[in-house]
């Protein structure tokens, strides 16, 4: 999941070298933290949060194979 979020985020932003993805695994629950440059925050969130919602939907669909609950937090 971490790699999926990282690839998507790096394609969206102007500063891909500042993209940092951390994964916290608590058994069945996984939290993925996405850190980007402050100037790129709007590109990752999108208008009315549409891009952020799309990223979360893709990760959620991919996580069903592993039977885990994944939450993506944009920091």
Can you tell me the CATH topology? GMP Synthetase, Chain A, domain 3
Total of helices = 3
**Proportion in helices:** 40-55%
Q: Do you know the CATH architecture?
A: 2-Layer Sandwich
Please state the average pLDDT score. Answer: 93
Secondary-structure element series = HEEHHE
Q: What is the β-strand count?
A: 3
The CATH C-level class name: Alpha Beta
Written description of the protein model:
The protein has a three-stranded mixed beta sheet. The two termini are 17 Å apart. It has one domain: GMP Synthetase, Chain A, domain 3, CATH 3.30.300.20. Helix content is 40%, strand content 27%. The chain is of the alpha+beta class and 75 residues long. 13% of the residues are buried. Strand 1 and strand 2 form a beta hairpin. The protein has helices at 2-12, 41-45, 50-63; strands at 20-26, 29-35, 69-74. The model has no long low-confidence stretch (mean pLDDT 93).
């Amino acid at each position: 999941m971490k790699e999926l979020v990282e690839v998507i985020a790096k394609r969206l932003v102007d500063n891909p070298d500042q993209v940092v993805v951390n994964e916290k695994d608590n058994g069945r629950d996984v939290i993925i933290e996405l850190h980007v440059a402050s100037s790129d925050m709007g590109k990752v969130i999108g208008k009315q949060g549409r891009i952020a919602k799309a990223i979360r939907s893709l990760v959620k669909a991919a996580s069903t194979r592993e039977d885990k609950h994944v939450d993506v937090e944009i920091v």
